[in-house]
Specification:
Blueprint (H helix, E strand, L loop, with lengths): L5 H50 L4 H10 L10 E10 L2 E9 L5 H22 L12 E2 L4 E4 L3 E2 L1
Parallel strand pairs: 2-4, 2-5
Antiparallel strand pairs: 1-2, 3-4
């Protein structure tokens, strides 16, 4: 038996160390959870953007432009989402999409890539219930991050 209180101090120190480890773990898990949510929303948004190309449903002015200049965009085209990379710089996250198709020209790929990026930003904004900064949702915002999208890389 220890009558000098040494055992109590050791328990308090041990408890303090456990609390510090627990708090730092919770913060780290919270940040990773938000990034996972951003990536999941980005994947859903990218797939929605790809699917919109398959539906070929556009506003009248867009439809008329495609009918005159980009006939291929008025029909369903096979586009495959390869991966989405997340690059973090403090509170700014940049998303890079990699996709594949064999049947589009470089200008058509740019148009489809812009649509994919739009739906990614829109999906992220809706996931975090953030107010869009403009009609293009550029940039999107989460609770802690500002999310930007880079031009789609076609492989």
């Amino acid at each position: 038996m220890n009558n000098k209180g040494q055992l109590s101090v050791e328990y308090i120190l041990l408890l303090g160390v456990i609390i510090i480890i627990l708090i730092s773990s919770v913060i780290m898990i919270s940040n990773e959870s938000e990034k996972n949510t951003i990536l999941t929303a980005a994947q859903i948004g990218a797939q929605n953007g790809i699917d919109k190309n398959g539906y070929a449903m556009y506003y009248n002015d867009t439809f008329n432009n495609y009918q005159n200049n980009y006939q291929k965009l008025l029909t369903s085209t096979e586009i495959k989402l390869i991966k989405i990379n997340l690059n973090e710089n403090n509170t700014i996250i940049e998303l890079q999409v990699y996709a594949h198709t064999n049947s589009l020209t470089s200008q058509e790929k740019y148009i489809v890539g812009s649509r994919i990026n739009y739906y990614i930003r829109r999906s992220i904004s809706e996931t975090f219930n953030s107010t869009p900064t403009n009609i293009y949702y550029d940039p999107a915002k989460s609770n802690k991050y500002t999310i930007k999208t880079k031009t789609v890389i076609w492989i």
